[in-house]
Amino acid sequence: MHRTADYHLTARSITTIFLCLLLGACAGQKPKPPTAAEQSVARLQYWTIKGKLGVRAPHDSGSANLTWEQRTAPSYRIHLSGPLGAGATVISGTPGGVTLQRGDEPPLRASNPAALTVQALGWPMPITEMFYWVRGLAAPGSAPSEEHRDAAGLLQSLQQAGWNLTFSGYQNRGPYVLPTKIKASTDQGAGPVKVTLVIKEWQL
């Protein structure tokens, strides 16, 4: 009789200990908080970037000088000059949509910058996501399928919104650590596209 009681007590104790350990492990698996690098650079909302953009696409390949003036989250002006820009291409974003003007051609307007650049340039320029990518951040609203960071929390590679990205250089600029070279590739509707952005100057 006592042996049966002892057996049930022992089994109950083991079960209790197991449940406590399981609950403790689950409690420890909390969502990974943003790194210090992410928290810092997320505060950067205004900038001017100067650099070079190289593109390899089925219908258009080449390079262009790039100047990106970011005024507020929905308002920006991206100026491309050189062979890829056919002299000059200006992409302007406002709360009302996106406008693209290439050389002396009439301006084109749309609500989606990627669709507009496919129409005008033959390849997609995902400016909505690039607003985050150029700062070394994953874009919200589209969960990354894969993301790798180094020991300091700096983004090294990212798969998001149909694009594969690698970040191969960073620089200290004021209180921020910002990317200087980003390679991106996609094989979406416009066909295989490879884009390389080299950022030579950050003006904050």
How would you describe the overall organization of this protein?
- With 204 residues, the protein is of the alpha+beta class.
- The protein has helices at 2-28, 36-42, 113-121, 127-133, and strands at residues 47-56, 61-72, 75-82, 87-94, 97-102, 108-110, 146-149, 155-160, 163-173, 176-188, 191-203.
- It has one domain (44-203): outer membrane lipoprotein receptor (LolB), chain A (Clam).
- The chain has four helices and eleven strands.
- The protein has an eleven-stranded antiparallel beta sheet.
- Strand 4 (87-94) and strand 5 (97-102) form a beta hairpin.
* Helix residue percentage: 10-25%
Number of strands: 11
End-to-end Cα distance, whole Å, is 80 Å
The quaternary organization reads as single chain
Mean pLDDT: 84
Reported by name, the CATH topology is: outer membrane lipoprotein receptor (LolB), chain A
Give the low-confidence spans: 1-31
CATH architecture assignment: Clam
Give the total of domains.
Answer: 1
- Strand residues, percent: over 45%
**Spatial strand order of the main sheet:** 6-5-4-3-2-1-11-10-9-8-7
Output the helix-strand order: HHEEEEEEHHEEEEE
Q: What's the CATH H-level superfamily name?
A: Lipoprotein localisation LolA/LolB/LppX
SS field, number of helical segments:
4
